[in-house]
């Protein structure tokens, strides 16, 4: 009975806190823009299946510590503000993929696409250069082995040496043929659903917080009243 009386006595405080929290939750849920995840997938260049031209960890380190900071500096210089979203890099386990992801609103989607495209371009140039170096080294070795075979053919007892050299050359030629360049599998692909809590859930949580806050405020107001009364009596 005392609790009911106390609640009724401070019901205005309860309603004020409850409806303030609820209104704030509704405003936040319906006026703050939804964010989506934008994903770019890149398949790294491989010398042969499972053997990378450049290790994924090295690629991610270069993206995080060189190319992304450079792009952020360019964006800051041209827009007088920081890049309004983050870009994260992951190498999914046991794959040759680099996953590039950002969370942004629809209004920022073009900026996300430009940023991802810039980083993909930097990575593509680097991977192409690495592939060219590896191919050049293999071609030089193949040419050297071909010359060696030509020299050995002038000897009568060099059959075993010729066979070994030819086998090695064929192996290098197979490696050369198996080199796979970098491939862009998806670029700034937008998630089908917004990320984060749904609007209904936000409103429900705001209502629950308002309810708890309102009850606490009513108790606090009654506690403060009792304290003031006792101080006045003393």
TrEMBL record:
Transmembrane segments: 12-31, 201-220
Single GO molecular function: protein tyrosine kinase activity
One GO term describing the cellular component: plasma membrane
Transmembrane helix in keyword set: yes
InterPro entries assigned to the protein according to its UniProt record, in alphabetical order: Bact_polysacc_biosynth/exp
Heme in keyword set: no
Keywords, in A-Z order: Membrane, Transmembrane, Transmembrane helix
Identification of the protein by name: Lipopolysaccharide biosynthesis
High-level lineage: Bacteria, Pseudomonadati, Pseudomonadota, Gammaproteobacteria, Pseudomonadales
